[in-house]
Every structure is written in C-alpha cells, then in structure tokens.
Amino acid sequence: MSNKSNQPKGFRCKQFFVAHDLCAMKVSTDSLILGSVVATANAGTVLDVGTGSGILALMMAQKSAPDTAITAIDIEPGAIAQATHNAVNSPWPEKIRVVQSPLQAMDRQQRYDLIVSNPPYFADAVSPTRAYATMAESRGQARTEQTLSIDDFFAQTAVLSHLGSRLYCMYPIAREAVVFNCALQSGWHLKQSLSVRHNARSAPYLGVYCFVRVPASLAAETLTIRTGENQYTPEYKQLCADFYLNF
Fold first, then answer.
1. Which of 31, 60, 168, 186 can bridge 154 by disulfide, Cβ–Cβ 3.0-4.6 Å?
2. Domain assignment present for 217
3. 151 closest CA partner among 177, 124, 132, 114
C-alpha cells in the first residue's frame, strides 16, 4: 500500500525501538495510521489478527492499560518468530502473547473487547497485474485473500466478539463497498471511517474503519499524509506523533 518514501525511519513505543532491518515485515505508514487511530479505552482483552512483526500488538501494548492482555496471531512461522522476539524485548512482554494460528481456529469461547487487524486485502480479482504472484509464498499469504477472505474475516471476528466489542481494520478504498456489505452481514456496524490520501491532489487510497456490534452514528473524516512540499501534514504528525522517532 505505502510506497518507500512513506516508510518511517523507525518505530518507537516509548523507549522501545524496532528498526526496519529487525522486522520481517516493514513498519508501514498504513499500520502506523491504523494503530494510532485505535482507541484502547476499556479494552481488557485485545486480539491482533495477522500480527506480522508485531507492530500493532506493540502499539496496543503502549496505548492500553497495564493489565490489558493482548493476543497476537499469525499463520506464518517467520512472522511468529519476529513478533515473539519484538514482544519479549519490548517493555511489555507480560502483556503480549504471540500464537501461531489462523483466525478460524481460535477458541470460540473467548471474547475480545478489542480486535485490530491489517488484514490481507490484495485479492486476485481486483489486482490489475500479476505482481503478487511473484511474491515469496509466506509474504503472498499475508497480503492476499487466499487464507482469509473479507467475508470470513468479519464472520470469524464476530464470533470472537461481544456486544461491546470494537473492531478496527483497514482496506483499500476500492474494496469499500464489499467491506461494508460483508461487515453488516456478520453483524458489524460502521462507527468511524477515515479515508487516507497521500496528498491533497490524490484520491483516497485507504479506508481505516471502526466497527461495533450495535448500530451507531457514523463519524467520517479524511486524512492527508503529505503536503505539496512532500512534508508530513500537521494532522498526520498529530495522529502518529507517539510512534515516530523524528516527530
């Protein structure tokens, strides 16, 4: 989603720093936006679906209460190893549990107050090229809908939620109609929508969403990442300041 120029030079959780060369999956601008948007108030249990190198889990650990329990899951062994390493070496090793498991295999008796995910979203049906077919298999699994379709994502997270749960995720704007329809079919109602664009001249490319289990009024906003001079905008800096070394 994000091009290289939008990649931060590093990631900071208070005193913890994950450098790019330590991460199996790079720290993307998109993930930082999602993690910055998430509200962790009253979240005693958190599920990070498709944790990758554990960035979202770490962000949730920094933002949440000291006794919050975070479960970070992924299907790729390399991602599990990296996420475990990053969690153990963070200030919050007791808060994060890393588990190798598909979402579909999670304990159906468990209910999470907060679910956050940068889900796989490059479906073959909407990809204009075969670029993703040349990816390494593990990376391709993480970034396509081969292992977790949009409808299955919302259906499975609904099973793991309760009436007060919140679900934060992001998808390309091009998939928005499908996302909203699948979410509603599984009992998720859109509460917040953030349309992200690279600059004021470009159309939004990404939607960051908060879904809840009970119908709620919708708050919709737009976030512009860069100014005409290719500098970060004040609103982007304000949103993500806690997670940038150079802000």
1. 186
2. yes
3. 177
